[in-house]
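Marked as duplicate of an earlier ticket. Keeping the data here for the record.
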Amino acid sequence: MPKKHAWRRPGTPTGTPAPPRSTQPPPAAPPHHPAPEPHRSVVEAAVYRDGRRIASPATLAETFRTLREQQDGMAWIGLHRPTESELHSLAAEFNLHPLAVEDALEAHQRPKLERYGDTLFVVLRAARYLDAPEEVDFGELHVFVGTDFLITVRHAAAPDLSAVRSRMEESPDLLALGPEAVLYAILDAVVDGYAPVVEGVQIDIDEIETEVFRGDPEVSRRIYELSREMVEFQRATRPLVGMLHALMAGFAKYGTDEELQRYLRDVADHVTHTSERVDGFRQALTEILTVNATLVTQQQNAEMRALAEAGFEQNEEIKKISSWAAILFAPTLVGTIYGMNFEDMPELKWAGGYPFAILLMAVVCTSLYVIFKKRDWL
C-alpha cells in the first residue's frame, strides 16, 4: 500500500493567508490486523491413473467430479480435522459406513481394522519423540480404503503424510497397485516413526537408572510419567500386530499383489519388534520403580537410624549433665541451710559442726556418684 501524504486543507482564496499548520501530530491510524486464514481441512487431494498424478483438485467436489470422469483412476484425499459436513459428503460419495464416519469424527479410538463391504477402515496411532520436553506425543490417523479411493483423516499434527505421498509418487509402479499399496506405505511410515521414539525412550531409561542410584528426589515422578507414556505406546503397537496379521490372512481371499505381501510382512516384523521393545520398557520401568522404592526406604531407614543414634547420644549427655547437677546440688543444699544465720540453730554452737557438714557433703556426693556410676549415667 503506498504511503499516505499528510492531510492538507483545500486551497484558500488568493490574498488570504493560509491558516497556520497544526503542530499536533495526526491521529494514529488504528492497527491493521489481518483476518485469520480459514482452516483448510483438505491438506492435499490428487487423482492418479497408472501410478501418476493427473489432477490436483482444490476442493472435494472437484475431486469427486474428476474421479468420475476418469476411468481406472484413484483418488487420494488427505484431511486434517475435517468438519462433519465434509465427512458426510465423503460418505455419500464413496458409500462409507456411518459407524466408521462416526469414529472418524469423534477420534480417540484404539487402533483397529474393520471391513465394511468393499471399504476398509483402519485406525492407527502414530508417535513421535519430542526432544525438548523429553516426552512422547501421540497422534491418531483414520484411513478409509476403497477400490478407487483412499482417504486419510488426522486430528493432530502427527503423522505428516506428505513424505509418504512424495515417496509413492516417485515409485509409480508401486502406486499403480492401487489404494492397498498406499495403505501399506502409510503403515510402514507409522511403524518407522516408532523407531526414534524407541531410541529416545531407551535414552530416558538409561538416564533414569543413573538418577535412581544417584538419589535424585525427582526421579519417581519421571518414572511415573514415562510409565504412562509406555502404556499409551503399548496401546498403539500391540493391536497393530493383530491388525497386520489379519491383513496377511486375507492375501489369498482379496488377491493381494505379491510385492505388497512382502511389503506387509516386513512391516509386521518391524511392529512386532517394536511391540516387544515397548513391553521390555514397561517391565524395566516397573523394576526401576521397585529398586527406587527400595533405595528410598533404605535411605529413610538410614536417616531414622541416624536420628535415633543422635537422640540416644543426646540422652546420654542429658544423663551425665543431670547426674553432675544432682551431685553438685547436695553440698549446695547443705551449705545453703547452714548459711541462713538464724539465732536458733543448735548446730551453729557445735564444736564439730563444720567437720560434720563437710563430711555430710562428701558422703552425699560420693553416694550419688556411686549410684549414677552403677547405672552408667557417668
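See parent ticket for discussion. The longest strand covers residues 119-130.
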